[in-house]
Amino acid sequence: MSRKCQLTGKKANNAFQVSHSHRRSHKLQHPNLQTKRIWWSQGNRWVKLTLSTKAMRTLQKKGLQAMAKEMGIDLNKA
Predict the structure, then answer these.
(1) Can you identify the CATH homologous superfamily of domain 13-71?
(2) pTM
(3) What is the H or E stretch that residue 38 is in?
(4) Cα radius of gyration (the chain)
(5) How far apart are CA 26 and CA 3, in angstroms?
(6) Per-residue pLDDT tens digits for 39-75
(7) Tens digits of per-residue pLDDT, 9-45?
(8) Are 58 and 38 in contact (CB under 8 A)?
(9) Residue 51 neighbours by CB under 8 Å, 6+ apart
(10) Where are the domains of the chain?
(11) For residue 66, which of 47, 62, 73, 74 is within the disulfide window of CB 3.0 to 4.6 Å?
């Protein structure tokens, strides 16, 4: 499984690490991903997803069914 949020699609960002002398080297900025079990009431079961913390907050507001529909995810396979 790649390091990517399953609901929002967030993934690592390419960036520069800049030293005091302003020498630049490449680094990756990874999103804060968590593996969560979420109750899916329409399917009447638990769904295990890898989510960013931002997606978890949005999930509380919108609900699992609405967010999955926006992203085109089939929760029966998740």
Answers:
(1) Ribosomal protein L28/L24 (2.30.170.40)
(2) 0.80
(3) strand 33-40
(4) 16
(5) 18
(6) 999 999 999 999 999 999 999 999 999 999 998 888 8
(7) 999 999 999 999 999 999 999 999 999 999 999 999 9
(8) no
(9) 5, 6, 7, 8, 33, 34, 35, 36, 59
(10) 13-71
(11) 62
